[in-house]
Write a structure and sequence with these properties.
By secondary structure, the protein is an alpha/beta fold. The protein contains 13 helices and 13 strands.
């Protein structure tokens, strides 16, 4: 198997090949690092490449195979981590000059679990400053582009993760998602991205766990890989009250490509808060829905009322940014992203009553959507209403 084949082999298969001693963790990690070195100048997907520590971990992983020790489900498999997530001994910048030299002492729970499962972290991927927008660019590192068309955006805010996985720079990536930050780059780059249900993957880094808006989740090239990664990261942890009592099993098995969809009712709606969609995007989504029907799903047009969520997003998110980053803005000035500063200024104008009203509306939207699932099992809708926009779009 040549280096390109290695870099595009699914994680599930790689773990099996390593366990069977058909490839080595050193060989695989070296191939991934070589690909990062070759593509980084074009795509700019990484803020930090942890080559030395990755190779040291690969050598240790190889020795474990040689010694016949028990191997984890991701033993020897490389992964990347979005640079909003703390990683022990490897800098975490949040895409900001304010944290350019920040080196955490500990991994977040999700990263620690991936390492415990045998995964090898190869580096930290790009994010807009504090993950604040759906394009990946920041004064600290510049702009990340789409590997399929470098004139287009890779999406955001987990855009570096999306570009890295799509271009073979490790089969798995840790992303985060509050308002689409995993799902948008997954759509732009042709990947599987999961914003998991609150509490499935514990979040021990957020300052306000009770008002949690950001979720840690997997990005991969296949459903099976994303499912395995999610299972490794999932499970209760005392740092996150939403995770307590949420011990889940069978996620990896559920992601395997077997069986059919007989008995599953799918609601299909091409519009969700929008009234326009690109024609080719619509056609491709309709083709996908027909494929689900061909393996037994019952597909019905879904037209239940949907309350637009923008009145929730502004007061909650912009006020959080104004609170958390106001002091940093005073220190950085125009070294902070102009779009983030604009939204922080807007966030400072909301009153406490505005925020409370938004929280109440959020609950109403949740109950409205949950009611849909009295009649359907799944909802299918386009992630984005058009292909990836130009990378230089404001």
């Amino acid at each position: 198997m040549d280096e390109t084949d290695l870099c595009y082999t699914p994680a599930v298969e790689l773990a099996g090949l390593i366990a069977a001693r058909e490839i080595s963790p050193v060989e695989l990690t070296a191939a991934v690092l070589a690909r990062i070195e070759a593509l980084q100048p074009r795509l700019n997907a990484f803020i930090t490449v942890a080559a030395d520590s990755a190779m040291a971990e690969a050598r240790a992983a190889e020795q474990a195979v040689i010694d016949g020790r028990p191997l984890g489900p991701l033993h020897g498999v490389p992964f990347s981590v979005k640079d909003l997530c703390n990683t022990a001994g490897v800098r975490t910048t949040f895409g900001s000059f304010g944290y350019e030299d920040n080196v955490p002492e500990a991994d977040i729970v999700a990263v620690a679990r991936l390492k415990a499962a045998g995964g090898i972290m190869v580096g930290k991927t790009t994010t807009p400053e504090f993950g604040h927008k759906p394009l990946t660019e920041a004064p600290l590192f510049g702009r990340t582009v789409n590997p399929w068309n470098t004139e287009r955006t890779c999406g955001g805010s987990s855009g570096g993760a999306g570009a890295a996985v799509a271009s073979g720079m490790a089969p798995l990536a840790v992303g985060t998602d509050g308002g689409g930050s995993i799902r948008i780059p997954a759509a732009c780059c042709g990947l599987v991205g999961v914003k998991q249900t609150l509490g499935v993957v514990p979040h021990d880094q957020t300052p306000d766990v009770f008002g949690l808006l950001a979720y840690v989740g997997p990005m991969a090239r296949t459903v099976a890989d994303a499912a395995l990664m999610l299972e490794v990261m999932a499970g209760p942890h005392r740092s996150d009250p939403h995770s307590l009592g949420r011990a889940l099993s069978g996620l990896a098995a559920a992601g395997q490509p077997r069986g059919d969809m007989r008995g599953v009712r799918i609601g299909w709606r091409p519009f969700l808060g929008n009234d326009r969609i690109d024609g080719e995007t619509l056609t491709l989504c309709e083709t996908g829905v027909k494929a689900l029907a061909s393996i037994g799903a019952e597909v019905i047009d879904h037209e239940a009322a949907f309350t637009n969520t923008l009145p929730v997003w502004g007061p909650l998110t912009f006020s959080i940014w104004a609170s958390r980053f106001g002091a940093l803005e005073k220190r950085l000035g125009n070294r902070m992203s102009s779009s983030l500063r604009t939204w922080m200024a807007e966030g400072g104008k909301y009153s406490a009553i505005d925020v409370q009203d938004a929280m109440a509306l959020r609950t109403r939207v949740f109950r409205e959507v949950e009611a849909w699932f009295e009649d359907i099992d799944l909802l299918v809708t386009p992630t984005l209403s058009r292909p990836a926009i130009r990378a230089d779009q404001d």
